[in-house]
Design goal:
single chain, alpha/beta, TIM Barrel, 6-stranded antiparallel sheet, 18 helices, binds 1-deoxynojirimycin, Alpha-amylase family protein, signal, GH13_cat_dom
């Protein structure tokens, strides 16, 4: 007890932390409040901009047509100046790359096509020099079927690795249920001749599921995490979380989840690196996130808000905000330490699986009307710019991304409005090389042929859309995005504050108010393609002037005692209450 009091005392004086929570406590009692509020500001993941990229398509330094670590190092200044705080690096370990690297064959290595372990370390060093953190994909639900563990497991029942995977002697009754890639995948249990048994795979057949019931597997995964944390990563984007923790022998379509497994993984990370984050990929219904964030605040720090994302696209498609507002409200109540990660597009299809069929059809109609734009019976395999098709709505979408409650995640290339290549299979449509300039291969590579084809035709070809041209144009999307990122960082209220949706009585205009440490923001977005007028009651902002943070304008209470807002089509306005500076 004495020790504990002494420790508490020292920690208050010198500000060090006693424990090392990945996630600290959830809402606390009044007596704990000030301690908890103090810690909150150290939760770096709440006020950062995350940028997702794949090495393959970012920058090729050695002319073999595939991007690599040295290429990425060359472009770090670009990311730095754009305002990126955190790079989320897609899988870079050795892999047959049948699923964009999400099929790993050695967890501890670096795929030689991207460079050596030395190149990886150089990259980490260069990122750190610029104050950038790196999080990496942790893909442990499954391995590649080429992984030596699986190869050995197949050989015999007595193999040490047999029990590292999930087997069934008989064909399970739901062998063709619960597919993640319907239309492409035929089954979730496949017979392996060598093994003489069926193995489980929620994803493609070349991705056998690891058996998380096996403590040896758990220990090995801890080693993998420990290894990469030692190498300097700031955390992980945890792939396929619900599948990692599901009981593979339970009902495929309504599986049992073992949250204790997740807790153990996170506890380990917390012990190894106190401020490491876990950004979870778990596309769940509202209410289910509680278990993932951890009821006691001891779960994942960040989770993608898939639910809000799908309803946001519904709002963008229809101009109606009602469902989106409901989705925000439905996902509002999360523990204090937790944070949603907001995104527009990612490296997969735009998943619309949580919309009703009618809603999904409306989004298809607006953004992916042709059959070849749709994928897996639930989504759209297109980039943001061609889907929205106009600069005004693109800006609206980005302004929302930066002003919604949570942490924004950007997909490489979206900051310049890159397009897609629908001739490529499945999700590869949105994985084409970064368009750096109008030089051959978009300035991405000096190879005679690149591994992934560059977009060289049409409105979105690299001749039209590239970084070099946009850098020189003050009105480009690139410069606009950089400006908005800067603004977002000057508005910590968004990442850290409490928020309320203001009642405007408009089907098209969304207004969110943030409160943080006596400072307030009001962000207004018009989803309609027509101009809109809305009013906000004066008491919402105590009658103080509202200072527009994007244009040199102010808004004051009118004679009727309300603030009046005129929004152009797809217009967006950010205001700070009382003055331009934060209190
Ligand atoms: C989710 C990833 O986002 C996706 O790209 C991948 O195919 C699956 N997990 C399997 O790892």
């Amino acid at each position: 007890m004495k020790k504990l009091i002494a420790c508490l005392f020292l920690s208050l004086i010198f500000g060090f932390r006693i424990s090392e929570p990945v996630i600290a406590q959830s809402k606390t009692t009044t007596s704990e409040q000030s301690f908890s509020t103090g810690l909150q500001e150290n939760r770096w993941y709440k006020n950062v901009v995350i940028y997702n990229l794949e090495l393959d398509t970012f920058k090729d330094s050695d002319g073999n047509g595939i991007g690599d670590f040295q290429g990425l190092i060359q472009q770090l200044d670009y990311l730095d100046v754009l305002g990126v705080d955190v790079i989320w690096l897609a899988p870079f370990q050795p892999s047959p790359r049948q699923d964009n690297g999400y099929d790993i064959s050695d967890y501890y290595g670096v795929n030689p096509i991207y460079g050596t372990s030395g190149d990886f370390s150089e990259f980490m060093h260069e990122a750190e020099k610029r104050g950038m953190r790196v999080i990496m994909d942790l893909v442990v639900n499954h391995t590649s079927d080429q992984h030596p563990w699986f190869q050995e497991a197949r050989q015999s029942m007595n193999s040490k690795y047999r029990s590292w995977y999930v087997w069934s002697e008989e064909r399970p009754k739901d062998w063709n249920k619960g597919m993640v890639f319907p239309g492409v995948q035929q089954e979730t249990w496949t017979f392996d001749k060598k093994a003489g048994a069926y193995y489980s795979h929620r994803f493609y057949r070349f991705q056998p599921d690891l058996n998380f019931s096996n403590t040896e597997v758990q220990t090995e995964v801890q080693k993998v995490m420990g290894h990469w944390l030692r190498s300097g990563v700031a955390g992980f984007r945890l792939d396929a979380v619900p599948f990692i923790i599901e009981d593979p022998y339970s009902d495929r379509e309504n599986p049992t989840h073992r949250f204790q497994l997740l807790k153990e993984l996170l506890r380990f990370i917390g012990w190894r690196k106190g401020d490491a984050v876990v950004l979870g990929e778990a596309n769940v219904e509202p209410g289910e996130e509680v278990e993932y964030f951890g009821k006691e605040g001891n779960g994942m720090s960040l989770m993608f808000n898939f639910y809000a994302n799908q309803h946001l696209f519904y709002a963008l498609a229809t101009g109606q905000i009602n469902e989106f507002t409901n989705a925000l409200q439905a996902t509002k109540s999360i523990p204090e330490a937790s944070q949603w990660a907001n995104f527009l597009r990612n490296h997969d299809e735009l998943d619309l699986g949580r919309l009703t069929e009618e809603q999904r059809d409306e989004v298809y109609q607006a953004f992916g009307p042709k059959k070849n734009m749709q994928l897996y019976d639930r989504g759209i395999r297109r980039r943001l710019a061609p889907m929205l098709g106009n600069r005004k709505q693109l800006e609206l979408a980005y302004s929302l991304l930066f002003s919604l409650p949570g942490t924004p995640v950007i997909r490489y290339g979206d900051e310049i409005g890159m397009g897609d290549d629908l001739s490529l299979k499945e999700r590869n449509a949105v994985r084409t090389p970064m368009q750096w300039s109008n030089e051959p291969n978009a300035g991405f590579s000096e190879a005679s042929k690149t591994d992934r084809p560059v977009i060289d035709e049409g409105q979105y070809s690299y001749h039209q859309v590239n970084v070099a041209a946009q850098r020189r144009n003050p009105n480009s999307l690139l410069n606009w995005t950089a400006k908005m990122i800067r603004l977002r960082k000057e508005c910590p209220e968004v990442g850290l504050g409490d928020w309320t949706i203001l009642d405007l009585n408009s089907p098209h205009v969304l207004a969110i108010k943030y409160d943080w440490k006596g400072s307030q923001l009001v962000m207004i977005h018009n989803f309609s393609k027509e101009p809109q007028q809305v009013q906000i009651k004066s008491d919402v902002a105590s009658g103080k002037k509202l200072v527009n943070l994007i244009e040199e304008k102010e808004n004051t209470v009118n004679k009727e005692g309300v603030y009046q807002f005129n929004l152009e089509e797809y217009g967006y306005q950010w205001y700070r209450v009382g003055g331009v500076m934060r209190n």
